[in-house]
Amino acid sequence: MMKLDGVVAxxxxxxxxxxxAASRRLGLAKSVVSERLAELERTLGTTxxxxxxxxxxxxxxxxxxxxxxxxxxxxxxxASSELAARSGKLAGPLxxxxxxxxxxxxxxxxxxxxxxxxxxxxxxxxxDDNFVDAASGGFDAVLRHGAxxxxxxxxxxxxxxxxxxxxxxxxxxxxxxxxxLAELERHRGILYSNRASDWRFATASGWSVIRPRAGLRVNSGMLMRExxxxxxxxxxxxxxxxxxxxxxxxxxxxxxxxxxxxxxxFLTYPKDHGASxxxxxxxxxxxxxxxxxxxxxxxxxx
Length: 302
Prior knowledge:
The chain is an alpha/beta fold.
């Protein structure tokens, strides 16, 4: 009979890329993971994983079995979650990915509240600014800000954020305050390197994309905020990065009479996974912590 712990060992090994990485993720010795995997192969009568000293790869049988094995584990986890929810208690693992900057700034209190409400949940959070595939990355759900555009995913909106043009008072004293899109384009910009057309503004004729001279390109919103504070140029950032800097005056909002494209925060998960009771509880908890409108939108005078 096929044992569930062998299926777990196979799926985690396939997703992690090695038995060593799988053992770390599962909190088990490499020998235990390897033996469970070997036992599953004996039960199925086929080799699932091709092992070598350099790398690990799936055989044709392993590639065929993987989506079915993942579905088995999802069904077991969802059934367990539903039973726990009916009894008023949620328990078990929940693996989440989130962007680094947003996670560092806002997820500490949110996770504290969630785990106080559901102490039996074993939560794992990984912060990563690279694209994380919620459909095949081994996570139960992924927090993202910005457009989703992936038909494999369900996206649950958690909160919104305006995106504001900001600069330091010193930069504006030295270089002047732009009041139109044309003037803005002549300034130094601190640009987010992962979006080619990041500065989009709503005008009477539709969206207008501005491409200022790049003073700095970087893939970190937090570093963009610090660069703007240091007077390196103008940045267009979500309020969840800059609400405190605007409140204490280290950054100043620039008003050019046009509204920039906003940012939305979503909790995404695969359609074929479905929203388990734990994912729903996690999303509900985040929304309660962030508020409606979220607390980072409540900036005095802005």
